[in-house]
Design a protein that fits this description.
With 335 residues, this protein is mainly alpha-helical. Helices cover 74% and strands 1% of the residues. It has a two-stranded antiparallel ribbon with strand order 1-2. Bound molecules: farnesyl diphosphate and magnesium ion.
């Protein structure tokens, strides 16, 4: 069973006592969001909203708020809204990836088919927008809308660039910035905006969120190749099967083992799923994962540099702890 990111953290340090109650409030707000829907929709929304997520984005909102003056009611709503946006994107993502399991449960597309899953994702997105529209002025709402656009843009680019051997490593980083780091950045910058902090601090926190989001997606991309479905609680191996060229692929295509490099490049050129069963035991594979993990670690280290600009506080320590936990998850991909 997949353990919550925060549970894992909590077991290591007591810092998350800080936001335990607020995370419960966020869960309660999410549960309330099914009420506006009619009786024919509510049971589906109830099922979709019941998922046990890791609550990373709400955690970032709450800790950023706590580290910059205190958690307000608006932060609770905002944290719930971001989690719903994230859930909406996953409902759609599982359709695109034909994934049948997430968070140890069957996905909406597996339960009810693609059509209903897409509509439920849209409904969640719309409800998240309703929540967000009450929170701040036009500047705040515009930032939110731009982030959702970037998130969608990242997915469109990903879908249109499957098996694209011309896609550069810089393109990969830009793609994962859009599809994953945007919401991490929005979590931290939005929390700071609700706190009415100055633009420079908002930008710093946005940068920290971006770095964490990129590191997290690198971890997720490594996990897709190294993890076990039982532990991850979701369908894995979809990247290699679908032609999503993630960071380990770049290192494999550039591997000093010419045999491996040619094999992987050949598969990409022929748009042929790469068979990792034979590759997994090779030094080239381990090296590709190691190099990818190092890229992730470099970003969490940079994220901490930004973090140290905030005044020292228990919430800042908890944010630092999250970055160290991400380092551990990255390292686990190498073992
Ligand atoms: C997970 O990626 C998916 C995302 C990071 C974003 C998905 C976004 C969309 C489908 C656009 C639609 C957006 C909204 C708001 C409705 P992954 O497949 O690499 O990770 P996984 O292994 O968890 O599936
Ligand atoms: Mg997916």
């Amino acid at each position: 069973m997949a353990f919550s990111f925060f549970n894992k953290l909590r077991n290591k340090k007591e810092h998350l006592k800080l936001i335990r109650q607020e995370l419960d409030r966020v869960r309660a707000v999410i549960a309330q969001q099914i009420e506006p829907f009619g009786p024919h929709v509510r049971p589906y929304m109830d099922r979709v909203c019941r998922g046990r997520g890791k609550l990373i984005r709400p955690g970032l909102v709450l800790l950023t708020a706590a580290a910059t003056g205190g958690i307000r009611d608006s932060h609770i709503t905002y944290a719930a809204m971001l989690e719903m946006l994230h859930m909406a994107s996953l409902v759609h993502d599982d359709v695109l990836d034909k994934a049948d399991t997430r968070r140890d449960e069957p996905t909406p597309n597996a339960l009810w088919g693609n059509e209903l899953a897409v509509l439920l994702g849209d409904s969640l997105l719309a409800q998240a927008m309703v929540m967000g529209s009450d929170l701040g002025g036009p500047r705040f709402i515009r930032r939110m809308a731009l982030s959702v656009r970037e998130l969608c843009e990242g997915e469109v680019e990903q879908s249109t660039r499957l098996w694209d051997a011309d896609m550069s490593r810089a393109d990969y980083y830009e793609l994962i910035r859009k599809k994953t780091a945007t919401l991490f950045a929005l979590a931290m910058s939005g929390a700071a905006m609700l706190q009415e902090l100055d633009d420079e601090t908002v930008d710093h926190l946005e940068r920290m969120g971006t770095l964490l989001g990129i590191a997290y997606q690198i971890y997720d991309d490594c996990l897709d190749l190294t993890g076990s479905e039982d532990v991850a609680g979701k369908t894995l191996g979809t990247d290699a099967a679908k032609g999503k060229l993630t960071l380990p692929f770049y290192f494999l295509m550039e591997s000093s083992s010419e045999d491996v490099a040619a094999r992987v490049r050949g598969c990409v050129e022929r748009r042929e799923p790469i068979d990792f069963t034979n590759l997994r035991g090779t030094d080239a594979f381990h090296e590709a994962i190691r190099l990818s993990v190092d890229e992730g670690l470099a970003r969490t280290a940079e994220a901490r540099e930004v973090l140290w600009m905030l005044p020292e506080s228990p919430a800042r320590a908890a944010l630092a702890e999250m970055t160290y936990r991400l380092d551990e998850l990255l390292e686990d991909c190498c073992s």
